[in-house]
Design goal:
Helix content: 55-70%
Strand order of the largest sheet: 2-1-3-4
Pfam family, one: GST_N_2
Organism: Clonostachys chloroleuca
Bound molecules: glutathione
Order of helices and strands: EHEHEEHHHHHHHH
Number of domains: 2
Protein name: Glutathione S-transferase
Shape: globular
CATH architecture of the largest domain: Up-down Bundle
Number of strands: 4
Family: Belongs to the GST superfamily.
Largest sheet: 4 strands, mixed
């Protein structure tokens, strides 16, 4: 087991949704780290491209080793520092818990979050409304059954798990977008009615200090508002 005393951690970041995953894990593990802010509005500096040739954030330097891809970084930290986030794979039920978390995260991103992103990128309000319908269907079919035993977190846990670390940054954005009317409030009403376990889970996740820690609601809401306006504009090339 790695000790936080031995490890120097630098997170290359810009406080966006994917990097937010790594903050949640670092916060839950109580690991000290340094931040290196990457300005995504500028071309990437060659020194950053040496760290991450794709030029994306987040990246992590851990004892001199570079890791990229938010889910891989989160999993690595959880594996290197065993905790309540996830059982070791060789513990009783460890492999099974990891498979369950993996399926939940995959379904969240590919069947649910993908529809929210499509809503944001839609060219017309009608197209946007169809993606919201698909979002609700995705939650009801894919996630609601997996959250029936949440207490309030995945798998009956009273602490955040790796499932929340990898999806909480999306949940808190969803709730912020309801609250501020960027997403039609009918989505919230429908989720409460059709997917109460998901809704209750999303509220609990979004209130957790490890999830709220770096979250700047105004910046996030302004960003998505701007994206929606840009895509819906008649001059949009997208
Ligand atoms: N699959 C990558 C995606 C990372 C990613 O797309 N990051 C975005 C910010 S959310 C980025 O760096 N964008 C900069 C660019 O595309 O130039 C991960 O999960 O780490």
């Amino acid at each position: 087991m790695a000790s936080s005393m031995d490890n120097k951690i630098t997170l290359y970041t810009c406080h966006i949704v994917r990097a937010h995953r790594v903050y949640i894990v670092l916060s839950e593990l109580g690991l000290p780290f340094e931040e290196a802010e990457i300005d995504l509005s500028l071309p990437r500096d060659p020194s950053y491209l040496e760290i991450n040739p794709r030029g994306l954030v987040p990246s992590l330097k851990y004892n001199g080793e570079i890791l990229t891809e938010s889910a891989i970084i989160a999993q690595f930290l959880a594996d290197a520092h065993p905790s309540h986030l996830v059982l070791p794979s060789n513990a009783p039920d460890g492999a099974l818990q990891r498979a369950r978390i993996g399926f939940f995260v995959d379904a969240s991103i590919s069947k649910v979050v993908a529809n929210l992103m499509a809503f944001i990128g839609a060219k017309t309000d009608a197209e946007g409304a169809a993606h919201i319908e698909a979002y609700i269907e995705g939650v009801v079919k894919e996630l609601e059954p997996l959250l029936k035993d949440a207490k309030p977190f995945f798998g009956g846990s009273d602490k955040l798990t790796l499932a929340e670390a990898l999806t909480g940054s999306f949940a808190i954005r969803l709730l912020a977008l309801f609250k501020t009317g960027v997403i039609p409030s009918s989505l919230e009403t429908q989720l409460k009615e059709k997917a109460p376990a998901f809704y209750t889970w999303a509220v609990a996740v979004s209130a957790h200090p490890s999830v709220t820690g770096i979250f700047n609601e105004k910046a996030v809401v302004d960003f998505y508002k701007g994206q929606i306006e840009k895509h819906r504009s008649p001059d949009s090339e997208h």
